[in-house]
Design brief:
This protein is mainly alpha-helical. It has one domain.
Length: about 170
């Protein structure tokens, strides 16, 4: 003890400082460290959910692309069947209606091509609208978490304009 007092160290002051340090450490742990960890955990879960949603959207797009290909293949088969049927009928009545059969075949082929193009365009439009809606929804969820109301409104409006302009293309 004598050595400590000769060195000018006040034991009571050091003990008081240690107690103060422990109190501050406990308060900071409860008021700062734990809430920050909770916030980081919630943020991590939100990001994982967004990644999962994106994966689901991609899977849905692949499925819709496969369905589109199947519809086009089926329509092509139907068109070929109709053409074959028309050819058989044309052969049976070749002398009497060769010119009429050729016109009918080309008319049917054009109508089916037009119908296929219209169906493909409609499906593509539907896919774009659904993906755009999902993207806007995901973006709005993210924006609501990270920005104030004015920033959210401004960014959401910019995203809607961008998507609307891309729909027109």
């Amino acid at each position: 003890m004598e050595i400590v007092s000769k060195l000018g160290i006040d034991v009571k002051l050091i003990l008081a400082q240690i107690v103060n340090f422990v109190i501050i450490l406990i308060v900071l742990r409860k008021l700062a460290y734990k809430p920050i960890l909770d916030l980081l955990d919630r943020r991590k879960k939100m990001i994982e959910k967004n990644v999962d949603d994106t994966r689901k959207i991609e899977e849905r797009m692949v499925k819709m692309e496969e369905e589109k290909k199947q519809v086009i293949a089926d329509a092509g088969k139907k068109a070929l069947e109709i053409i074959e049927k028309a050819k058989v009928e044309a052969q049976a009545e070749r002398e009497q209606s060769t010119l009429n059969a050729k016109k009918e075949i080309s008319g049917l082929a054009e109508r089916y091509r037009a119908q296929l193009k219209a169906e493909e365009a409609k499906m593509l439009k539907d896919v774009k609208e659904e993906v755009s809606t999902l993207i806007v929804s995901v973006c709005e969820k993210i924006l609501k978490k990270d920005f104030d109301k004015a920033d959210q409104k401004r960014l959401a409006e910019a995203i809607r304009k961008e998507i609307a302009s891309s729909k027109l293309e």
